[in-house]
Amino acid sequence: MGRSPCCDKVGLKKGPWTPEEDQKLLAYIEENGHGSWRALPSKAGLERCGKSCRLRWTNYLRPDIKRGKFSLQEEQTIIQLHALLGNRWSSIATHLPKRTDNEIKNYWNTHLKKKLTKLGIDPVTHKSKNESIFSDGHSKSAANLSHMAQWESARLEAEARLVKESKIHTKHSLQHQLGIINSVFPSQSSSSASSSSNQVLHIKPDTIPSGSLDAMKAWLKSNEGNNGSDLESPTSSLSFCEKGIVKDEGEKEWKGYENSTNLEEYKDGMENSMAFPSTMHHELTMITWGSSDDNAHVSVADEAGFTNLLLNSSNSGDRSLSPESGGECNTCYGSGGEFCEDNKNYWNDILNLVNSSPSDSSVF
DNA sequence: AACGACGCCAACCGCTACTTT
DNA sequence: CAAAGTAGCGGTTGGCGTCGT
């Protein structure tokens, strides 16, 4: 397992790129594609190592890169995803179209970390430094984070495999998969598959055929005793949606927490992202396709593995995937039988997040 | 005006995971 | 199956610009 020696070679230029070098790299890639990065510098007439060329391209020269100030929405997304995924910048970047992992990482380190710290929030754990703030049950949800991260990590590995598997499939496969969905959800998908706008399938649990992703099944199975909806990871003993976590509050836009020093707003945002396992985000992504204005979205439904997941994910649960139903799940009834009002907020948040994300992400 | 401190960010470094031989 | 090669990721650094004294 050797490390690439290219950067150790003497005589290769380092440091900032000149406009001439940029031009050479850009021209070469536009004409030939990057192909092998290792071989690219000599072919393009650059005295750089391939690694340096790749970095320059992916972080700066790529045409689909947006530069400049991060919007509040982007900040929110970064914080939420960071709470969930930790320092997985590339994964986070897949949900921020046109932003690079490097840029997000820099922005986190130079801006967001400080803002959270200012608010008394540990940017690593996303917990309030003053534990008492969360002592009304919120600490539990915060404590779930590290556990969720572990679970997420395992899940990401599984998804990576699925993505790989799916890439083998051809366009024919895509049509085949869409055909399956059309046959399974004729009314829901008839327009979606051909629509150019983002669409969300409203899947009724009783229409979903069975299938398998072992870990997912195991997880779902482990929850059958709880009406199949108590969304825990296989190793967790904690409930993700409990009375203490979800607050009874009206629908709320994410506010510019950096301006308000309003810890509650930050907490609300985090709670909405923490109260459910990310697998549910995944389910949503899988049933969302189309293209946004500036993104040529390819449906994740064309990914065979994802499709299988889609077809299986809700197999054992009574959960409706319809956001219009408020995303109701049995979990969200407290011990007294009261309904968790915040479900709607949760679904809206996640839908917003997911709908604005590139659908080929391997994260959700 | 000069200097130091600080912030930002592009680029590098080293590691890991994946692929190829 | 092991070794070598390669790409990608995340942490870190260094240079430049800005601000304060």
Automatic annotation (TrEMBL):
The keyword Mitochondrion does not apply. CDD domains: SANT. It comes from the Eukaryota. GO terms for molecular function: DNA binding. One of its GO terms (biological process) is regulation of cutin biosynthetic process. One of its GO terms (cellular component) is nucleus. It is found in: Nucleus. Keywords: Developmental protein, DNA-binding, Nucleus, Repeat, Transcription, Transcription regulation. Transmembrane segments: none annotated. Residues 9-61, 62-116 form the HTH myb-type domain. The keyword Transcription applies. Pfam families: Myb_DNA-binding. Coiled coil: none annotated. Residues 9-61, 62-112 form the Myb-like domain. Its main location: nucleus. PANTHER family: MYB FAMILY TRANSCRIPTION FACTOR, MYB TRANSCRIPTION FACTOR MIXTA-LIKE PROTEIN. This is Transcription factor MYB106-like isoform X1. The gene is LOC101489372.
